[in-house]
Amino acid sequence: MTEYVAFLRGVNSGKNPAVKMEVLRKAFEAPGFKNIRTILASGNVLFETDYTDENILEQKIEKMLQETIGFNSDVIVRTIDDLHKLALLNPFKTTEVTQHTRSCVTFVKGRPETSLRFPARGKGYTILGIFNGVVCSVVDLSEVKTPSLMQILDKEFGKGITTRNWNTVERILKVS
Fold first, then answer.
1. What topology is assigned to 2-81 in CATH?
2. Residue 25: predicted pLDDT
3. 89-166 belongs to which CATH class?
4. Order of strands, edge to edge, in the sheet holding 120-122?
């Protein structure tokens, strides 16, 4: 069996209804996934399965979630091994962490393609680059209250993306 993490867009954020993590865990049991765990309440689900095609897993989970939680949630699936490889690259090694700094990782369906030149800077953010298929950015909240990063990422990569704080990724790796 392979260990995966499903990153669900829009769970317990924005205008969507709240979703209890117990509901997600039970939903992930229906397709026969094993060892299901949720990390935080923002749509991060670890699970194991014999399926090996991430695209099929994403489609299967998206369909199941629509039926279970009542709204569409884009799903991006990565293996735990992929996340370990990303951590080894240490994309934020040159980032000076302050109380106003947030290190962000944006998961994109498939492999991201872009015309951006890195580092790409904008209002309150710097996109460092693409590491192991993940867009890594730094947000500086001392410059602006609401950085324009998410609008730029949606425009560049489409709406089928989801962003997490790097601390969330580290937490997932600790429990995997």
1. Alpha-Beta Plaits (3.30.70)
2. 92
3. alpha beta
4. 120-122, 125-131, 134-140, 101-108, 161-165
**Radius of gyration in angstroms for the set of CA atoms belonging to the chain, rounded to a whole number:** 16
pLDDT digits (tens, 9 = 90+) for 121-173: 999 999 999 998 999 999 999 978 777 898 999 999 988 899 999 999 999 99
pLDDT the model gives residue 17: 75
Q: 3-state class of 30 per DSSP?
A: coil
Query: For residue 161, what are the β-bridge partners?
Result: 108
Q: Please give the full DSSP string across 108-159, using - where no structure is assigned.
A: ESSS------SSEEETTEEEEEEETTEEEEEEETTT-SS-SHHHHHHHHH-S
User: Residue 9 is inside which H or E element, if any?
Assistant: none
Sign of CA dihedral 46, 50, 54, 59: negative
Q: How far apart are CA 149 and CA 123, in angstroms?
A: 8
Rounded CA separation 160/122 (Å): 22
The answer to whether 10 and 41 have CB atoms below 8 angstroms apart is: no
Residue that the structure tokens 């989801």 belong to: 162
